[in-house]
Amino acid sequence: MSHDIKGQGGSFGYGLMSEIGSILCRRIENIDTLAEGDMAPLRQCLDAMTQVIENRLDGDGGDYGLAIMAVLAPMMDRLPEGRR
């Protein structure tokens, strides 16, 4: 589902949703089993998607979107080796 959101969010005018979907995809694409600490970042992505929907953050979400991405983007730097 995260792959679909990544691909379709922008098609419906929700580019921020596509960016969050991309981060979520990258977080889960190489996970065979969940390790300790894997759920918190996944939950952050899902919570961010909820914020996009609840606040109707179309496009890049403006200042609110920038704040969301400031929290989520660093997650990519914290992926365990082999999961980037």
Describe this structure in words.
The chain has 84 residues and is mainly α. It is built from four helices and no strands. The protein has helices spanning 2-8, 15-28, 39-54, 62-72. Helix 1 runs antiparallel to helix 2 (15-28) and helix 2 packs antiparallel against helix 3 (39-54). The model has no long low-confidence stretch (mean pLDDT 86).
Summarize the structure.
With 84 residues, this protein is mainly α. Helices cover 57% and strands 0% of the residues.
The SSE order reads: HHHH
The helix/strand class is mainly alpha
Q: Roughly how many Å apart are the termini? A: 20 Å
Percent range of helical residues:
55-70%
What's the number of helices? 4
- Major sheet, described briefly? none
Strand content: under 5%
User: C-alpha Rg, in Å?
Assistant: 12 Å
List the uncertain runs. Answer: none
**How confident overall, as mean pLDDT?**
86
